[in-house]
Amino acid sequence: MPGEEQLFCASEEPGRVSEDPSVLEQRYLAIPLDAHRFPALGFHSLLPADRIAFVRQQLADPPGELNTDGRPVTYWLNMLLWGKFSASQFVAWLERLRDLGPWPYVVPAVVLVVLLLLRAGMEAWPQSRLRRQAATLALRRSASSRWRRSSRCSSATRPPSASCSDASRC
């Protein structure tokens, strides 16, 4: 039971461990003790049938989710818990979303990629844009080569009357 300390007993021999209060009472009374300090009928109050059925059901159910680095579930379970505390319909929506698996996340991404591909296929690559990009690249190259040539010309090597554009004198 939640909040209580539990003691689990096991044996390799079948039938050795019992949950029947009358069997436990007989075994207890069969132990030779000077004084039985525990009342033999106490097994009936410690092991009621409904509690035994509850514990058996909990042990038979599949284990809960394990929180790992690869698959963290603590945040998810905390959202569900607080949603239940607040009586929110958000919890039911989250549980339905989780039951769908990865599809709610994969489908929008696939649709986006398909739409982008359709757009690219329907738009012709404009020749004017291609020419504009080529012209910009050509202007950049010619400007950088002129700058390199002008930086090689220094005032010490050229006469004062020569301009830097006169490559033969630089």
Task: Determine the strand fraction and express it as a percent band.
Answer: under 5%
Stretches where pLDDT is under 50 for at least 5 consecutive residues are none
Q: What number of structural domains do the residues give?
A: 3
Average pLDDT number: 79
Helical element count? 7
Element pattern in H and E: HHHHHHH
User: Which bin fits the share of residues in helices?
Assistant: 55-70%
The best one-word shape is: rod-shaped
Give a quick account of the main beta sheet: strands, pairing sense, barrel closure: none
Give Rg in angstroms. 42 Å
Question: What oligomeric state do the depicted chains represent?
Answer: single chain
Number of strands: 0
Feature tags:
170 residues, mainly alpha, 7 helices
Can you give a write-up of this model?
- By secondary structure, the chain is mainly alpha-helical.
- It folds into three domains: 1-61, no CATH class; 68-99, no CATH class; 102-148.
- It contains seven helices and no strands.
- The protein has helices at 21-30, 42-46, 49-60, 74-85, 90-99, 103-122, 127-152.
- Helix 4 (74-85) packs antiparallel against helix 5 (90-99).
- The longest helix has 26 residues, at 127-152.
- It is rod-shaped.
